[in-house]
Amino acid sequence: MRKMHFAAALTVGILFTAGSALAYDGTKCKAPGNCWEPKPGFPDKVEGSKYDPKHDPKEIAKQQASVQAMEERNKKRVENFKKTGKWEYDVSKIAQ
User: Fold this and answer.
1) pLDDT by residue (tens digit) across 3-37?
2) d(CA 73, CA 45)
3) What backbone torsions phi and psi does residue 31 show, to the nearest 5 degrees?
4) Terminal alpha carbon distance of the chain
C-alpha cells in the first residue's frame, strides 16, 4: 500500500514539474541556458551607467589594511600557541 502512495505522489510531482517547465516561455534565449534579460530601461552594460557601483579606491584600501592587520594578529596568536600550547585570542595579552 505504501508503494502505491509513493508512486502516486512521485507521478504527481513529475507531472507538476514537467508542466511548469513547459509553460515558461517568458524569455528569449541567446543560447541554451543563457536566458537572462534585463528589465526594461536597464542598460546592457552596467559600467558607466547610473547602476555602476563606482567603488571608491580609499574604501578598498581600508579593507585591505583591515585584512593585513587581521593576518598579523593571527600570526602572533599562532606563534604564541606554538610556544605556550595555549590559545590566547586577545593579542594584547601576548608577551612580545
Assistant:
1) 656 666 666 666 655 544 555 555 677 777 777 77
2) 41
3) -155, 160
4) 73
8 A C-beta contact, residue 75 and residue 60: no
CB 3, CB 12: distance < 8 Å: no
Determine the Cα–Cα distance for residues 85 and 41; give it in Å rounded to an integer.
61
pLDDT tens digits, 35-85: 777 778 888 788 888 878 888 888 889 999 999 999 999 999 999 999 999
Eight-class DSSP state of 85: S
| Reported pTM | 0.44
CA 52, CA 54: separation in Å to the nearest integer?
6
Helices (H), the chain: 2-23, 57-84
Torsion of CA 49, 51, 55, 59, to 10 degrees: 140
Amino acid letter, 32: P
